[in-house]
Write a structure and sequence with these properties.
27% of the residues lie in helices and 25% in strands. By secondary structure, it is an alpha/beta fold. It is built from seven helices and 19 strands. Helix 1 runs parallel beside helix 2, helix 1 runs parallel beside helix 7 and helix 4 packs parallel to helix 5. The strands form five sheets. Strands 1, 2, 3, 4, 5, 6 and 19 form a seven-stranded mixed β-sheet that branches. The chain folds into two domains: 180 residues, FAD/NAD(P)-binding domain (3-Layer(bba) Sandwich), CATH 3.50.50.60; 115 residues, FAD/NAD(P)-binding domain.
Length: 308
């Protein structure tokens, strides 16, 4: 590993979910000085049980899976800092990048962008009390728990439409709640929801109610009961980084090639921010591909520097 100053790295990874941790395991094991900027309170941490991930025949909680991934990355030397990356820009020298947080600046030769989907947490009374107890932020993770049951989806933009169509694979008893907002999504998506007769409730939500477990939503003084509520407000947290670096954005996700390369030198992206199947196994594989691509880029550059 090349000797570098405290805030200088060969690889900075934005996001500490499955894609980011997988990438860090590869880059750190390749003896590249690696930093993960990991915003706390990830959605996967709230998944009670994941049954479809390889190697866990009895299932595993999202929190435990992330802990194991982080431990493995740190074992190879990766550093993990709970800081939100706010800005990414090209170094003034034209070689490498600068990633800024609230009060720190990190220099890096290459980047892997994998912040996932950043859900907005609506400020509704009682919402936090039932997270993981009937209130979920991940349809792909938790939809199998609600097979044939009554489920609400909270949101008003593209994400809630996409999540509703995903949930239809498990239950048709679905209702969208916009919490006072108008639906705002492409016509092709709204048409697909209309074809399935998905009802929409536009009233403002006063309270999330329940006892030990989630029971429903109070709207205009009346409780609408349901078995589960999926929060689907928000968008990819990678878009600001993409715009600052000139990465192409298509349909709200980052454009990458088959090797997860963004087209910007030594910048790769992986996970939910590039679209595709929102599955842990897919994110892990994409993180590995992104890491291998960046490792090759950096080693090739080092060879050029040495041979010139």
């Amino acid at each position: 590993m090349i000797s570098m100053s405290k805030n200088e790295y060969e690889v900075v990874i934005i996001g500490g979910g499955p894609a980011g941790l997988s990438a860090a395991i590869y880059t750190a094991r390749a003896e590249l000085k690696t930093l993960i900027l990991d915003e706390a309170d990830k959605l996967l941490e709230k998944a009670e049980k994941i049954d479809n991930y390889f190697g866990f025949p009895k299932g595993v909680s999202g929190k435990e899976l992330l802990r194991r991934g982080a431990d493995q990355a740190k074992r190879f030397g990766a550093e993990i800092i709970e800081e939100k990356a706010l800005l990414t820009k090209i170094n003034s020298t034209g070689e490498g990048y600068v990633v800024e947080t609230t009060d720190k600046r990190f220099k890096s030769k290459g980047l892997i962008i994998s912040p996932g989907i950043q859900h907005k947490k609506p400020p509704i009374e009682g919402m936090k009390d039932f997270e993981g107890k009937g209130v979920s932020y991940c349809v792909v993770c938790d939809a199998p728990l609600y097979k044939g049951k009554k489920v609400g989806l909270l949101g008003s933009e593209d994400l809630v439409g996409k999540e509703a169509l995903e949930l239809f694979e498990y239950t048709e008893d679905i209702k969208i709640y916009t919490n006072g907002e108008e639906l705002d999504m492409p016509k092709i998506l709204s048409d697909r929801l209309n074809d399935r007769d998905v009802p929409v409730e536009k009233g403002e939500i006063e309270e999330v109610v329940g006892d030990e477990e989630f029971r429903g939503l109070r709207i205009e003084g009346e409780v609408q009961e349901m078995d589960g509520l999926m929060i689907a407000e928000g968008s990819s947290g990678s878009l600001d980084f993409a715009r600052s670096l000139g990465i192409t954005i298509e349909d709200g996700v980052l454009s990458v090639d088959d090797n997860m390369f963004t087209g910007v030198p030594k910048v790769y992206a992986a996970g939910d921010c590039v679209g595709g199947a929102r599955q842990i196994s897919a994110a892990v594989g994409e993180g590995a591909k992104a890491a291998l691509g960046l490792i090759n880029d950096l080693r090739e550059q080092n060879y050029k520097d040495w041979s010139s």
